[in-house]
C-alpha cells in the first residue's frame, strides 16, 4: 500500500465511523433527528459519488461513498418509515 493510500484509508475510516453513532441511535430509537432534505441530498450525492469512484477506479472513495450512502440511507429509511 502506498503512503497516500494509507492516509486515504485512515480518512475514510474516520469519516465513515463518524456516521456510526448516529446510525446506531437511529436504529435503536427508531427516530432520526436529521433534516429530511439533508438526508435525501446526502444519500443521492453519496450514491452518485460511489458510481463516479467506480468509473475512475478509486477504491478508497468507492468504499467511503458506498458506506456513507448506506448509513445515510438507513437514517432516511427510519425517517420515512417512523416519521
| Largest pleated sheet | none
Write the element-wise H/E pattern from the N-terminal end onward: HHH
Tell me the total number of β-strands. Answer: 0
Strand content: under 5%
Helix share of residues? over 70%
Let me know the average pLDDT. Answer: 93
Secondary structure category? mainly alpha
Q: List the total number of helices.
A: 3
CATH class: Mainly Alpha
Q: Tell me, what's the shape?
A: elongated
Please compute the radius of gyration using only Cα atoms.
Answer: 14 Å
* Unreliable spans: none
CATH topology: Monooxygenase
Give the distance, in angstroms, between the N- and C-terminal Cα atoms. Answer: 44 Å
CATH architecture: Up-down Bundle
Number of domains: 1
What features would you describe in this structure?
This protein has helices at 3-29, 36-56, 59-82. The protein has one domain: Monooxygenase. Helix 1 (3-29) packs parallel to helix 3 (59-82) and helix 2 (36-56) packs antiparallel against helix 3. The mean pLDDT is 93. It has 83 residues and is mainly alpha-helical. It is elongated, with a radius of gyration of 14 Å.
Strand and helix map with partners:
Elements: H1 3-29, H2 36-56, H3 59-82
Helix pairs in contact: 1-3, 2-3
Which short descriptors sum up this protein?
single chain; mainly alpha; membrane; transmembrane; Monooxygenase; 83 residues; 87% helix; transmembrane helix; Lipid A biosynthesis N-terminal domain-containing protein
Amino acid at each position: 500500500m502506498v503512503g497516500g493510500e494509507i492516509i486515504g484509508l485512515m480518512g475514510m475510516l474516520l469519516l465513515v465511523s463518524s456516521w456510526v453513532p448516529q446510525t446506531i441511535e437511529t436504529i435503536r430509537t427508531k427516530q432520526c433527528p436529521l433534516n429530511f432534505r439533508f438526508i435525501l441530498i446526502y444519500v443521492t450525492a453519496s450514491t452518485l459519488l460511489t458510481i463516479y469512484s467506480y468509473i475512475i477506479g478509486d477504491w478508497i472513495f468507492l468504499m467511503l461513498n458506498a458506506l456513507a450512502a448506506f448509513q445515510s440511507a438507513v437514517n432516511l429509511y427510519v425517517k420515512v418509515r417512523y416519521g
